[in-house]
Amino acid sequence: MSLTLNLLLLFLLVLSHDAESGSIVKFLPGFEGPLPFELETGYIGVGEEEELQIFYYFIKSEKNPKEDPLLLWLSGGPGCSSITGLLYENGPVTLKLDPHNEDFPSMVSTTYSWTKVANVLFVDQPVGTGFSYKRTPILDQTSSKTEIVRIHEFLEKWLVEHPEFLPNPFYVGGDSYSGMIVPALVHKISKDNYLCCKPPINLQGYVLGNPITDFAFDDNYSFPYAYGMALISDELYESLKRTCKGSYDINPRNTKCLKHFEEFRKCTDRIYVQHILFPICDDVTSPLCWVYKESLAGHWANNERVREALQTKQGSIGKWVRCTNLDSYKQDIISSIPYHMNNSLNGYRSLIYSGDHDFVVPFLATQAWIRSLNYPIIDDWRPWLINDQIAGYTRTYANKMTFATVKGGGHTAEYKPDESFIMFQRWISGQPL
Fold first, then answer.
1. Which is the catalytic residue, given 152, 299, 358, 420?
2. Would you list the domain boundaries of the chain?
3. More confident: 136 or 71
4. Which of 38, 79, 139, 274 lies 20 to 30 Å (CA to CA) from residue 239?
5. What's the rounded Cα separation, in Å, for the pair 287 and 296?
C-alpha cells in the first residue's frame, strides 16, 4: 500500500476519532518554576463505546524528539500506577524524601531520566489503576490477554492523535509483572502490522526489568538464590533439594518437604524481598524507610491542585493508590517464554536486566529461562563498567537479546536509577553495554 494512501487513511481516522485529546502541563505543584521538559497528559478511550478511559503521561525526548525512539512504559502489579516509573524509576522528576508539612511534597529534577534519549509514554493500566477509570459502573473482569488487546488499541489511537511519532523507532518497556504483558504485546503489534489497512508501528524491540516470566522458573529459583545470598544454611538447602525436589510448588502430603519449607520461611520472612539489603519497616511514614516514598506519592497524587494540574477528570476515581488490588484480574498467561521465542524469530531486539538483590524474581530464574531459548552466545559473560567501576554483568545472544545484571539493584530500576539509565542509554543507541 502506498505511503499516500496510508496517510489518507490516517487522516480519516483522526477525523473520526472522538477520544479526549491530551493537554500540555507546564507546571506541577511541588516543582519550582516551569517544567524543564514537555509533559502531556490525557485519556484515550478503549472498548466498543470507549467506556474505558486510560490515562497517560507523555514526555518528549530532551534530545531529538522527532527522531529519538518512542518507548511505551508499563508498570507491573498488575495494577501499579505508571507514576511508579515516572517518579521513581526513569522519569525526569522525583519527589524529595524529606519530611514535609505541606499538602504535597517537593519535586526535583533527576539525572537519570530515560527521556534524555527517548520519548516516553507512561500508561496507567489496567483500568482501575492510577487515574484510569471506566465510564460505566459495570464490573470489568479483565485478564492479561484482554489487557494486551486493550493496550494495543490504546497505542493505535494514541498514534492517531500523534501521527508525527509513527516514523520513530518504537519500543515497549516495563518491569515486574509487565514481563507477562510486554512480550505478548510486542507479538501482537508485530502480527497486526501486516494487517490492512493501518499505518504500521515502527516496532524495533523491547526492554524488561526483573520480569515475571514463567511461574515455575521464577518461584523455583528462590531456594538456590537464598542459598547463594547466605540467607539459608548449606544443610537446609540440601534438604530442600532432596525432599522438595527443587520445586517451590509444595505438595501438602510431602511432610518432610513441608517441614524444611517452614524452616526456609522462618529464615526469609523478615527479608524485604524487593531488595534483600533493605530493612522491613514497621512505620512506612518514616523518611528512613524505603517505602516512605509510597506515602509521599499518595500525598502528592491525592492533592486537588495536583489533579487539576495533571488535568484528570474530576470525580473519576476516589483515593489514588500506587498499586491497586484488582480482585477480578485473571492471570491467564502462565509463561511468556513462547512470546520471547516468537519475537526473537521476528528479529526484534530485547534487553532483559535484573537487579541482583531482588528476591521477587531472582536473577537466577531470569538466566534460566533465557538459557531455555537455546540461542548461541555471541558476547560471553563480562562486567559492564561506569567510570571504570563494575556496574553489573552482561551477556549477549544471537537472537539480539542482551541480558544484564545491575550490581546492587533490586526489583525495579528505582534502587539503581543512574546505572539503569546508562545501561538503557547504551543499549537503545546500539552500543555494547
1. 358
2. 3-214+302-352+412-428, 217-268
3. 71
4. 274
5. 10
